[in-house]
Every structure is written in C-alpha cells, then in structure tokens.
Amino acid sequence: MRNGEIRYLCWNKRNGILTKPNLILGNGEVRESAEGETTEYVFTHEESTFSVEHIHPKKSGMPNYYFVEVTDKDQKKSTWKMEQLPIPKYLESLF
Length: 95
Hints:
This protein has about 100 residues and is mainly β. The chain is about 0% helix and about 40% strand. Strand 6 and strand 7 (about 75-80) form a beta hairpin.
C-alpha cells in the first residue's frame, strides 16, 4: 500500500480477482533471511498466524516459489504451495 502497510488478500479458487477477497489481512511484518534467499510476510488474524514465504530464485529466469502456512491457536500448522498465475490482460495497465 502507499502508506507502507503490508497486506495479504486471498480469494477462493472459484472466484475471480475482481470479486471481493475472501480474506484480507493487514499490518504484516516482513522478515528477510540473512542471505536474502527468502522473504517472509507474517500476519495475525484472530487466534491464527498466517505466514507467506517467498523463496527467491537462485539464478535469473528460474521460478519463484511461494508457500502459505497457517498456525492456529493450538499450534497446528497447515501449509500450501501457491501457484504463480499470470496477470490478466485487462489488469496489465495497472502494473
């Protein structure tokens, strides 16, 4: 965001990006590894912690990897690997 706040928005798979997000998390904290290999964005929501990890490619042209991990109040963790999707053509002018 323009004010520097880190936010995470996500949609159910069946919904398009132009619909209202199913979850919006704000006030994220950025953690970078000492070697710059990964960047982690951490959010809290109710009694859960959401972590989005970005693993940077080691070489130019290699893929980026993204993982989401949710830790609940009982410290139970669920992890998902995310797919990087192309930006729809009708949104390209915004980037």
